[in-house]
Amino acid sequence: MSANTSIPQNPLLKGSGLPPFDDIAPNQVIPAFEQLLAELDQQLTALEANVQPTWNDLVEPLEQLTEKLSWSWGIVNHLMGVKNSPELREAYETVQPQVIQFMNKLGQSQPIYNAFKQLRASDSWQTLESAQQRIVEAAIRDAELSGVGLEGEARERFNAIQMELAELSTKFSNHVLDATKAFSLTLTTKEEVEGLPQSLLSLAAQAARAAGEETATPENGPWRITLDFPSYSPFMQHSTRRDLREKIYTAYITRAASGELDNHPLIERILELRQELANLLGFENFAELSLASKMAPNVEAVEALLEELRSVSYDAATQDLAALKAFAATKGAAEAEDLRHWDLSFWAERQREEKFAFTAEELRPYFPLPQVLAGLFGLVKRLFGITVTPADGQAPVWHENVRYFQIADETGSRIAYFYLDPYSRPAEKRGGAWMDVCINRRKITDNGVTSIRLPVAYLICNQTPPVDGKPSLMTFYEVETLFHEFGHGLHHMLTKVDYSGASGINNVEWDAVELPSQFMENWCYERTTLFSMAQHYETGEPLPEHYYQKLLAARNYMSGSAILRQIHFSSVDIELHSRYRPGGKETAADVRHRVAKTTTVLPPLPEDAFLCAFGHIFEGGYAAGYYSYKWAEVLSADAFAAFEEAGLEDEEAIKATGRRYRDTVLALGGSQHPMQVFQSFRGRQPSTASLLRHNGLLNGR
Questions:
Q1: What is the CA radius of gyration of the chain?
Q2: Average per-residue pLDDT for the chain
Q3: What pTM, to 2 d.p., does this model score?
Q4: What's the CA gap between 610 and 616, in Å, rounded?
């Protein structure tokens, strides 16, 4: 809190340390950035005038300047995701163009670019650590990709495109949030909620109460079903009312596809601008520009991996669908011969229940969030020797449900912190789950005293909130999601790199960023980890053994379909950003339907407007990069295989392998090329065999 002076300092200008969330209000955003950008502009001008091509006179001051901006802008971006409001949006949209203008100016600074090149060519280059060299190399590349070589009209056009793209992606994101929020279905009779599990009835009654139906109860309704994932997904899996499933499914796949929230025109415009941007920088298409800073060398390499996985998974997915139809027929389902999209989740869930004799719902009571966290924290202690303890109250939070934790190493020294915002809040929080950087690890020298600033992460999930006095009871999928995001968090928090430009996930090639997150998901199935967290929330009894065996058996259930789905998204993304040209005979939606012919076994419906809600590539950072999930999964499956080879029952071997993983994959951050980091851990290049084996797709099924 600020001292009681006559003019309180704007909390968004604090510039360092933990964000003072209790003091931040949307009306402070505009004045804060007017002042901040003016100051930074002066600092940049001064730096350009006096820049010397040395680490201390170039990189250090530049980092201090950019950190001030990323601290303040990071908070505003974070709040846009977790505490969205009309006031915040308006402030964000006012400030965003000015922020981008400054970033362009910085990225295109000729004096700074020249100084970086001089540093690379200088005698002192060899004295720099690999992390420092990678930071300099990245700065040169990023300047070139930011249009530093453009002049006159070309530069003006480039900057105008960057500005418009940023506005379009914010608009795209808001449209999806608003369209998701705009739809709801209120059910009032017992017939309409037939088949729905207790957990969904409780959630739906809670949603109805929040919408003004004060007397709503899980037993008697009314029940409000929304397109928010914790509501939509179980409804599609369990509702016996095919007509209602169709209604909800149609609403879901047509989100943000018509009326005022229509994202179709935004998509075409985004793709058109990205193509123009790539051409201005001398690339054939946007995919080439995107890959210039990734591990994958070119579009051909990406398509080769996708094709290798597609050919294996397509046949498996075809068999999955045939088996599902046959199963529905044995149950006398009228639709068995002609399963539609809104039938798949329902029948897949019924078949899974019968085949493996358990329901996803039956497992929920065994996965209360506090117990899952205990299991997760136990695992990272076992693997990496770190201890996670609650630190609630030591940091201001943006919502009462947000937790704060501390991480210590074997000696008890604190090494990192993180926030956890676990529950879905459809009115103000965007869907999905993500990890974001709050503070980067960095060596700081102040008055001759050197200290390490510890990293802090945001971990955001959208799981089922506590309902009717029970804790948050998680589906197994929600458990995997939490482990996934925690993996990203570990990458950020366990870094040993002391230069923020390459610490944690910074400067890590985008298609390697998912390695640590996907790696963690594997542990959800490992016996010791699973039993440390699967305990009944009321009785404390452990998950019965037969459930564990069924979970393992069900792990690869329809895995061919799951992989094919990712291949479909990745292929559409690469096609749109490499060969597609807006304004021709095809629209982006046509491209998606064309690609679907070889990447889906049940082609999307004509009205399916999935792209209109495909935030990863139109608002997030996955443009021409969605394939990264699969690229990194090859790495993560192979990394987990190292533990399997060491022996999952052998605690000493697990510890030694965990230590090696921590010292390479997690510690080295962006200080080395990811292939080098992987080889330091694994002793060889990655192979796709582990991924296919884990998915039950090696040598038949």
A1: 26
A2: 95
A3: 0.90
A4: 12
